[in-house]
Design a protein that fits this description.
This protein has 529 residues and is mainly beta. The chain is built from three helices and 43 strands.
């Protein structure tokens, strides 16, 4: 059998060789792909331009083959921006960098065919800080960043930082403390943090130096909580010892160590804020407040006191519900997307709602310190939905972003509104046309510039995607917007200094790439003046 099989294989090989040798004499059927255009044979044969980095107005050479006879048919683009072809030969194309452009890949278009080439870096005043100590970053999204003790508390849905989970079997679950250069610091230790799939959405600091972590938290540092917890300045849970029911004879079961903040809510907390007297304000789409009654609880079983509390609530320092703020509060009649505290007492919320506590509030509402609605604080216009809200306490300016048109006294404010704390719109800033894009995040910096992120592909008719830095009036300057692409979503911005002492921004979010650098949801962006 084996000999016969070997013989058959040998015969088959001989037949194939014979067919290949005489294939020129074989008449084949109709080519199913016939009728298409012949390939043009165009391509970039050197994978870099000269120079590799250029400024607007400078000339750059690209090495291309196969252009003979087609020189008058080509169109040249860098990052989808049309550029002027100064000269074109069969193997060399020289282009002039236009005044408005972002770093990106080159391409040649001939008729309906596109040929992609190397990347051209556009020189500008922004760059990813290569001297920053963070390498791999966070494995999971970053939602909030809070400066503290020369470093930063970082919160999110991550479980790993700098591959420590792999290299050291150390997991960073939902919250971590890093130093000024992006390295792990031992100044704050959070134990297992938000272990078990939970995450920290918001951080707030109390007047006595403790911290509130809020989000979707079933446990924190192995202790059961209801989406919110208070920790000491070393990262350990602020705890207390209470007497509980002892169902047995073991004396140790008469006492339990529990969270000193005895309060929580029924769902995700989007934002948490603290007042000067250490009360805590929580904002979200929840409907109830939880408190544990330790007089009727044991170490293994808890009895909860559940109170109706919707959208925006205030809790006392011990975590109990402040009924003077939230009594009979019907909250928002739709989804809340974001919130900010202004003047250390009022809360502004945005989202897809039309009323708050039964009163008109079209997408935005300002809740006063007694829990009532400030009916004078409105954003007039055609509002579909408001996505995000940020507040600069130095400038006392709010930035609202979403889908809306016709806001402000002039009716010219669209998609981003810069607002004063009295609810009026600051119309010195006007966002330019972004086509069909949506702005998902916007924040005003201390120098008056705005950093924005969205789905837009153009700005004022020029190809400009995602992350942009805008001037006080909404103008886009080339020198601050030469870097690209930005891949991901921005959730938080903190102003800081670069390794060279230049102004810089810490960017946190779901960020995969900026420029040519792959980042782990966190980076430091250097901005040269």
């Amino acid at each position: 059998m084996k000999r016969n099989l070997i013989t058959k294989i040998a015969v088959l090989i001989v037949a194939l060789i014979t067919c290949a040798a005489c294939s020129k004499d074989i008449v084949t059927g109709t080519d199913p792909y016939a009728g298409g255009k012949e390939p043009l044979g165009i391509g970039f044969y050197i994978n870099y331009p000269e120079p590799g980095t250029a400024k607007p107005g400078e000339l750059v050479d690209f090495y291309v083959k196969g252009l003979k006879g087609k020189l008058d048919q080509i169109s040249f683009f860098v990052n989808n921006t049309a550029v002027e072809v100064v000269s074109a030969k069969d193997s060399l194309v020289t282009i002039k960098v236009p005044a408005q452009i972002t770093s990106g890949d080159a391409k040649i278009v001939v008729g309906e065919e596109i040929f992609y080439g190397p990347r051209l870096e556009i020189e500008g005043n922004t760059s990813v800080d290569e001297n920053y100590g963070m390498v791999n970053g966070f494995r999971g999204s970053v939602y909030d960043i809070l400066p503290n003790a020369g470093g930063f508390i970082v919160a999110g849905s991550f479980y790993n930082f700098e591959n420590e989970a792999v290299d050291k079997k150390v997991y960073r679950n939902g919250v971590h403390f890093i130093d000024a250069n992006g390295k792990t610091s031992d100044n704050m230790k959070f134990g297992q943090g938000a272990f078990g799939g939970g995450f920290v959405r918001s951080i707030a600091k109390t007047s006595d130096g403790k911290f509130i972590f809020a989000g979707a938290l079933g446990t924190f540092a192995k202790r059961a909580i209801n989406n919110i917890v208070r920790v000491n300045n070393d990262g350990a849970i602020d705890s207390m010892i209470v007497e509980v029911i002892n169902p047995g004879n073991d004396p140790k079961n008469s006492l339990d160590t529990v969270s000193a903040f005895n309060g929580g809510v029924s769902g995700l907390i989007l934002r948490a804020f603290t007042t000067t007297d250490n009360k805590v304000i929580a904002v979200g789409n929840f409907t109830s407040h939880f408190k544990i009654d330790y007089d009727y609880s044991s170490r293994d079983s808890r009895r909860y006191i559940i109170s109706t509390a919707k959208s925006v609530i205030r809790m006392k320092e011990d975590g109990s519900l402040d009924s003077t703020f939230a009594l009979n509060n019907s909250g928002a009649n739709g989804q809340i997307m974001d919130a900010a505290m202004i003047d250390n007492e009022r809360i502004v919320i945005v989202g897809a709602f039309t009323t708050y506590n039964g009163k008109a509030a079209n997408g935005i509402a300002c809740i006063k310190s007694d829990g009532s609605l400030d009916e004078t604080f409105t954003l007039k216009g055609n509002i579909t939905r408001l996505f995000a809200l940020s507040y600069n306490s130095t400038l006392k300016k709010l930035v609202v972003s979403g889908i809306f048109t016709g806001a402000g006294a002039s009716g010219k404010v669209n998609n981003i509104a810069l607002m004063n704390t009295d609810g009026t719109v600051d119309e010195t800033f006007i966002l330019r046309d972004i086509g069909t894009g949506i702005i998902n995040y916007a924040q005003i910096l201390n120098n008056g510039q705005l950093i924005i992120d969205g789905t837009h592909k153009t700005y004022a008719g020029v190809p400009r995607a995602n992350l942009l830095i805008l001037e006080k009036n909404g103008e886009l300057l080339q020198k601050y917007n030469s870097l690209g692409p930005f891949t991901g979503a921005l959730f938080k911005v903190i102003e800081t200094k670069s390794s060279l002492g230049e102004p810089a921004l810490l960017l946190g979010g779901s960020i995969l790439q900026y420029g040519q650098k792959t980042v782990g949801n966190f980076l430091r962006l250097e901005i040269k003046n």
